[in-house]
């Protein structure tokens, strides 16, 4: 049975394995940046542990009262469809506050399975807004 706990630096290597498996370059290119991102103020990052191994991770950014945004959710392949994703998301929202959580989806089945309402969404890159590359191995993928 997995236990949920707040993300700490000691979980970074295990979390990076999950991101690597998903092929998310913006989260694997620079581990220091990933550590900063997952530890940022105003966000709640949880990991699911089984026998001390990281088998899931979720990060929710929230204003603490009304709106929250799901930044990351990933569950190790062999641990999927056991409710871990749902539990991570529910607990991250509970801890962060917020009445609702918005998510940009590359896996519609998960959100539809949870009963999510569908909205149209957009994502603008720094480049599209005329901002320079922030450096440190910036990657514009997921
Ligand atoms: C999305 C993800 C985190 C879901 O994790 P999970 O632990 O398997 O999710 P849960 O077991 O809590 O699933 C909750 C519900 O979502 C739906 N669901 C999840 N995966 C599904 C799938 N592959 N096909 C159909 N429905 C699915 C089901 O309704 C499920 O409930 P059920 O198992 O009782 O039918 C996991 O599949 C994952 O890590 N995917 C790769 C990373 C990713 O795509 N992240 C999201 C980016 S937007």
Query: Structural class of the helix and strand makeup?
Result: alpha+beta
Secondary-structure element string: EHHHEEEHEH
* Fraction in beta strands: 15-25%
The strand count comes to 5
Distance between the termini: 29 Å
Task: Evaluate the radius of gyration.
Answer: 15 Å
Mean pLDDT: 92
Strand order of the largest sheet: 1-2-3-4-5
Number of helices: 5
Most strands sheet: 5 strands, mixed
Unique ligands: coenzyme A
What is the overall silhouette? globular
- Give the proportion of residues in helices: 25-40%
Instruction: Show unreliable segments.
Output: none
Task: Please give a structural write-up.
- The chain has helices at residues 12-22, 25-28, 31-38, 84-96, 108-113, and strands at 3-6, 43-50, 53-62, 67-75, 100-102.
- The chain has 142 residues and is an alpha+beta fold.
- The protein is built from five helices and five strands.
- The mean pLDDT is 92.
- Residues 22, 73-75, 80-86, 105-107, 109-110, 113-114 line the site of coenzyme A.
């Amino acid at each position: 049975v997995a236990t949920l706990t707040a993300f700490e630096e000691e979980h970074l290597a295990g979390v990076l394995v999950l991101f690597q498996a998903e092929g998310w370059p913006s989260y694997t290119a620079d581990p220091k940046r990933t550590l900063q991102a997952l530890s940022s103020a105003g966000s709640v990052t949880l990991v699911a542990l089984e026998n001390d191994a990281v088998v899931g991770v979720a990060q929710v950014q929230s204003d603490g009262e009304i709106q929250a945004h799901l930044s990351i959710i990933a569950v190790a392949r062999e641990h999927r469809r056991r409710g871990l994703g749902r539990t991570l998301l529910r607990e991250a929202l509970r801890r962060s506050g917020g009445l609702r959580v918005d998510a940009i989806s590359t896996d519609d089945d998960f959100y539809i399975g949870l009963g999510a309402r569908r909205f149209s969404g957009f994502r603008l890159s720094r480049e599209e807004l005329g901002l320079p590359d922030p450096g440190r191995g910036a990657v514009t993928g997921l």
